[in-house]
Structures are given as structure tokens and as C-alpha cells.
Protein: VOC domain-containing protein
Amino acid sequence: MKTTHNKSNKKIQTSAAAMLNLLILFSASEKTVAQTSAEIVGIDHVGINVPDLNKAVTFFSDVLGFAPVTQLGPIPLDADWKKLNNINPNTGAVTIKMISAGNGASIEIFEYADNKGSKTHPNTDDIGASHIAFYVNDIKASVQYLKSKGVKILGEPFTMPSGDTAGETWVYFETPWGSKMELVSYPNGKGYEKANPKTVLWSPKNATVKKVSEADFDAKKNTAIVENHLKIWNEKDEVKRKALLNQVYASNVEMVDRHFIAEGIEDISNFIVELQTKNPDFKFTVKSLETNHNIARLYWQFGSKAKPAVVSGMDLFVIENGKVQKLYVFVDQKE
Structure:
């Protein structure tokens, strides 16, 4: 939704052309965004050493319900590799097993034959100490389950009362080989999320939710979502607008315009404020609105009371979990 006018010989005239553009944009938007100059996409796996590979696999599969997938080795290690990686020269071959841990990074476990390295786990405050945290929906039930399997629970679940992690409940437990791991749960989110941050921490809690459900195919509900979307863009009251933003858009919503991509509620909110500031007498009105499964299409116009159609265009919505997940904006170009 922009007021900039660029001369063009082409104009979106038919729904067929619009849908072709939608397909192109869908392909482009399902992108892997490089997070650093190293082009890191995310965490693929976490590696840990164990004294007994078979016992570790049994714990991960029989107790935690994970699935062992791939195995390498035993792989003999030459002297140069051991020196480069600070491995005792008398340690034997390594065997590596990759475990699928559900939604998120996999777990890679290493067993070194005739291991001459330290057999002592690092203390919690030692450099290099680490742990793996597993998200659970019901932490009390999970604790009881682990106890029934003979797993040592380190203390009792504790709920953070305030701060960025308010609402998060966690507890540590110990594996049969002595490594410390964690259960964590925050079914109602964490405290920091209430401030509508630009970046929200990834969570398997969100990944376990089925993105598209039968409810997302409800034409009446989707029509109401789009109508509220239009209210957002016309709302001048910041408090009311923010309430609607959180009601209508997913926290990681992505708005794809021809000139830019806005990521997250805050980005979109800032753009709306800028648009309203530049065009105080303008408002958006509906030309037509239709839905198809969890996709909605809105033809709109933007202008003053005297000239309501200074700018016109079309928005395409992808609705998942009852909220707008993707928003594709097409602005008609003036000839």
C-alpha cells in the first residue's frame, strides 16, 4: 500500500495476472535469509560426546522418544587430525550417530573408542559446559514421566515471575551418563513478547502447531480477518491499532511489497504510521473481497473523500492459525 506513482506500460488488469504474480512471490518469499555475512541459516544439530553410544541411543529413543537416523564409523583418526582438534593421541576411532529430536535441531552423539580424554563432566560454571533444552507442553506431566523412567530430576520446576522470560517454567534433569539437560515450557509465551519485539525467538512450541487447519478455510472468519486488516490501516489511534495488529497478524507476519519486505508486526506498524502521516486525509476503502480456502484477495482504493481512488491495488493474504501469516501487496501503476 504505497502512494508512490511510477510510470509503467503494464497494469494488473485481471485476476489471472494477479495469481501469476502471487505464484512468483510465493516462490521468492519462501527464502532462506542469511543471518550473517557467513550466510548462516540456523542451527542444524548439537553435538555431544557420550561414554557408551548404545546406551545413549537407548535413552534418547526409549525414554525421550527420539529417532536414531544415521551412523558413521568407527572412523580411525590420524595423528594430524587429533592434533588439530585437541584429541589425545592415544584415543581410538570415533563412531557418530545422528538423532532426530522432533521439531528443531538434531542431536549428534560421538563415542570415542579407548577414550583417553577426561571422563569428568564439566561443572556448570566451567568454560565449555553446555546443556540441551527440550520444549514440553505440560512440564509437570513430563517430570512425572521422566521420574517413572528412573531419570534424576535436579530440583523442582520453577516459573519465572518477571522479566523477559516471565511465564517460562524450567527444570534440569540428568542423563544416565551424567550430562545435564533441561525441560522448558511457556504455553502462554514469554514476558518479552508482550512488547511486540521485531524479532521473536524461534520456538518448537510454534512449530508443533499445525499451520493450516480446517478453521482456516472458513470464508466467514477470513472475511472478518481481512475487514479488520483494513481497519488497522485506517486506524489513527495507536492503542486501538496495536490491539488489532496483534489480533489479525501473526507475530512473524511478512508483508511483501514491490519495493520492500516488512517483517514482523512492528515493521508493518511503522509503515502504517508513516503512510498516515504523509496522507492524513486519505483512507482505504474496499472495492471487492473474496476468499478461497485460506487465501483471501482484497481489491482496495486509497484516497481522500473527494478523490477516493487516488491509488488502487490488491492485497493477497495467506491465513494460518487464524491470523495473517503472509501479505502480498500489488499496487496498480498509473499509465
